[in-house]
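Q: Give me the 3D complex with adenosine monophosphate.
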Amino acid sequence: MKLILLGAPGAGKGTQAALIKNALKVPVISTGNLLREAIAQQTELGMQAQAYMDNGHLVPDELIIGLVKEKLESHDCDNGAILDGFPRTVAQAEAMEAFSQVDVALSFEVPDEVIVKRMAGRRTCPKCHTTFHVEDNPPKVEGICDKCGETLGIRHDDDPEVVTRRLEVYHEQTEPVKHYYEGKGNLHSVIGTGSVEETSAQIYKILGLNV
Ligand code: AMP
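A: Here is the predicted complex, encoded as structure tokens.
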């Protein structure tokens, strides 16, 4: 199954992707994580993407489309994939039609004021990318990743000013992608303001999974 997760930054896409992948037994392709890895490794792509990401803007479509196509065509994705953070523009959604089909598009609905509060408390593992929240989803040991033991950090683009820009970019460029999939009849809304478990339960129901 090919599943795409749409929603504002901090809406819970990454957290849910990590849970759903176990139930669906397909890999997660997170374009944000791929780009952060490219930056850490100082690849050509990373160097081109960094300034856009630091400022809360989207990386140009032409940099990202080929990257996703290559991942989706690898054997890891023979049984499908969960796309977290792609497509983020209608041009990306249209380009994807040429190389892959989307079965279900999930749209995480979370008001902007909740996003701003969430991002202020978000802590991220720089190694395995697991995210936590200081109040709502704290790690077992303060400041340490439960999964891999790395010291947690704050993503540069979770800075309040950058979050405001990312929300603007989301409303301008990514919300139209929701309407694109609505038109295709495969958009499902998920209320993303409850607990992690409440959100997962909605998703499992939409996907018809008995978890
Ligand atoms: P994320 O971790 O999904 O919030 O992505 C972090 C940043 O990576 C975004 O603010 C963008 O700058 C960039 N990015 C991730 N996915 C895409 C995409 N599909 N198109 C353009 N830029 C992207």
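A quick observation: The first helix runs from residue 13 to 24.
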